[in-house]
Structures are given as C-alpha cells and as structure tokens.
Amino acid sequence: MEDNFASTPTSTVTAYVDPSCPFAWITSRWLLEVARIRPITLRFDVMSLAVINEHRELEPWYRAFNDRAWGPARVCTAAAAHHGPEALARLYPALGRRIHDGGNKDFDVVIPAALTEAGLPTELADAAYRSDVDPQMRASTARAQQLVGADLGTPTIVIDNVAFFGPVLSSIPRGEEALRVFDGVRLLAGCRVFSELKRARTDDLSFA
C-alpha cells in the first residue's frame, strides 16, 4: 500500500503497555500497522496495571484481574532488563497473540510458550512469581505516569516526546485508516492546551 503521507517526518514512538491489557494490545497492533506502512521508530516499555491499581479499591473481578497481571508484566520487565528492549519487542507480541487473540489466560502455559517464540530463555518465566524485578517495573510505570499523569494508565503513547493516554480502540485500524488515526492523534498531542477527547464505547473488542 502506498503511503499518502510519505512526506510526513519520521516519528519516534514509545508505547507503554501491560501484556494483560486488551486495550493496550489493540493499540499496539495499530502502531505496528502504522510501522508497516510508514517508517517510524517504535519501541515498547512496561506500564503495569498491577502497580497502578495496587492500593486502589476495585470491584472484585477487576482486583482479580490486576492480581494476575503481575506475572506477565514481571516477565516482560525481566526480559527487557536482561536482554534489552529488542527482547521485549519480540516477547510482548508473542504474549499478546496467546492472551488476547487466542484467549488463553493460563499464564503458566502462555509465558513459557511466548518466551520460546521470542527466542528467550524459558527460565525467565520464573520472574512471574518473583518480586526482585518489581523495582524496575515500578520505575518504568512511574516514568509513564510522570509523562501522562498519575491518574491515567495503559496504553500510554509517547510520540516525538509528547505523551498521552490512548487512543483506546475497540478494533485495529488498518491501512490508510491507521495512518489517519496516527496523524490525528499526533496533531492533537502536539497541541499543548488539548487534554481530552472521549465517547462511549459501543462495539465489542475485536483483535482481528
């Protein structure tokens, strides 16, 4: 597909994600679609929902979700710490395809399989049950919150050093639509007085 925005300067994009978050997964797939069509520098970092919601009062189902979210986020943090950001860029999609596309929430099965696909040592799976990587995970989460605001979460995106929460999408924009969304959010992010644009979500989530 030809990029109708080929003259647009290359952007550096950081996506702060939690591997358990379906909205972060959809947003990451949109960014990879943009990267397929247009040359952008795309990297991933961990923004842990478990850390963000650690001391908040939550509905029981969401507390259970957050308590389980420690494991995959810890493994992603350990992979990046020991093998660099490129390892996280391989591991995060391998986890997301299993957790979200495949609907497999058995992390004891998902994590070793994703590590193998990403070419990483399966021993990293042990990090899911260890707290020694938590300081690094808290630090990356704090970086994201400092950029976007303490009351916001994942997905947090940084484009050309400007951070914002979202976009929250119910499905993955493709082709020209992906580029239009990218240029739209970059334009809004560049407006320093802009803070929020939101509407009710009516569609079911689609990872296709």
Explain the overall architecture:
This protein is an alpha+beta fold and 208 residues long. It has one domain (24-189): 3-Layer(aba) Sandwich (Glutaredoxin), CATH 3.40.30.10. Helices cover 49% and strands 10% of the residues. The protein contains 7 helices and 4 strands; from the N terminus they run βαβαααααββα. It has helices at residues 22-37, 49-52, 60-83, 85-101, 107-117, 134-148, 175-189; strands spanning 12-17, 41-46, 156-159, 162-165. It has a 4-stranded mixed β-sheet with strand order 2-1-3-4, with helices on both faces. α3 (60-83) runs antiparallel to α4 (85-101) and α4 packs across α5. The protein is globular, with a radius of gyration of 17 Å.
Topology (elements, then pairings):
Elements: E1 12-17, H1 22-37, E2 41-46, H2 49-52, H3 60-83, H4 85-101, H5 107-117, H6 134-148, E3 156-159, E4 162-165, H7 175-189
Parallel strand pairs: 1-2
Antiparallel strand pairs: 1-3, 3-4
Order of helices and strands: EHEHHHHHEEH
Total beta strands: 4
Spans where pLDDT lies below 50 across 5 or more residues: 1-7
* Mean pLDDT over the residues: 92
CATH H level, superfamily name: Glutaredoxin
Radius of gyration: 17 Å
Mind telling me the CATH class? Alpha Beta
> Quick one: biggest sheet?
4 strands, mixed
* Count of helical regions: 7
CATH domain topology? Glutaredoxin
> In CATH terms, what is the architecture?
3-Layer(aba) Sandwich
Number of spatially distinct domains: 1
| Proportion of helical residues | 40-55%
The first-to-last residue Cα distance is 19 Å
Strand content: 5-15%
Structural class: alpha+beta
Coarse morphology: globular
Strand order of the largest sheet: 2-1-3-4
